[in-house]
Amino acid sequence: MTFGDAVSVCFSKYATFAGRATRPEYWWFFLFGTIVSVITTVIDSAAGLQWDDSAYGPVSALGSLLVLLPTLAVGSRRLHDTGRTGWWQLLFLLPCIGPIILIVLFCQAGERRPNKYGDGAAAY
């Protein structure tokens, strides 16, 4: 799966929390979200639109809202591919250790056989 394919799939499944997502699909979309964040922050800074002393402003907020739901959806589908429920994403709320655990889970290979979330994904 290429960068463009992953972005296209994730936006076509904008709020689809069912099914499975491969590692490349998840990580390419993660990269897309990071690029959007950097670009919108630069636009806010260059235009002087920051809120108080932060680098963030209205353009950054809109960019974040644009990718929030598809990021949660692809994260849920990625966890489904490893045989876990999407609710594991709530680990992100645990300071320090939660995001580390999620990174490990997102990096794990998916189950090659069908599981309760769908058939095995094509590429690993």
Automatic annotation (TrEMBL):
Transmembrane feature ranges: 26-43, 55-75, 87-107
Keywords, sorted A to Z: Membrane, Transmembrane, Transmembrane helix
One Pfam entry name: DUF805
Protein name: DUF805 domain-containing protein
Native source organism of the sequence: Nocardioides conyzicola
